[in-house]
Amino acid sequence: MPFPIEEKYIEETEKKLDVKFPDSYKQNMKSINGGEIENEDIHWIFYPFFDKSSKKRIYNEI
User: Fold this and answer.
1) I want to staple 5 with a disulfide (CB 3.0 to 4.6 A). Which of 22, 33, 40, 44 is the partner?
2) Global confidence as pTM
3) Mind listing the pLDDT tens digit for each residue in 1-56?
4) Per the domain annotation, does 53 fall within a domain?
């Protein structure tokens, strides 16, 4: 299960991908960092941002 994530890792990903994520998306990901949304028509998977702040978090994301 993903951990909450610091904004600096989201910003790192934005720079690497040369994108700007919406603020609402970043706020949500900072608290849950991943998850799924599903209904009859769609199934979205939100992959967590890579968090290298500790060995435990790196291990859980591999």
Assistant:
1) 33
2) 0.70
3) 567 888 999 999 999 999 999 999 999 899 888 888 899 999 989 888 877 776 65
4) yes
Q: Decide if 2 is inside a domain.
A: no
Token readout for 51 is 């968090």
Q: Which of 21, 9, 18 is nearest to 48 (CA)?
A: 9
Domain count across the chain? 1
Within a domain: 20: yes
H or E element that contains 44: strand 43-46
Q: Which two tokens stand for residue 2?
A: 């993903």
Instruction: Give the whole-angstrom CA distance, residue 15 versus residue 60.
Output: 23
Residue 39 lies in a domain: yes
Tokens coding 34: 């991943």
pLDDT at 5: 87
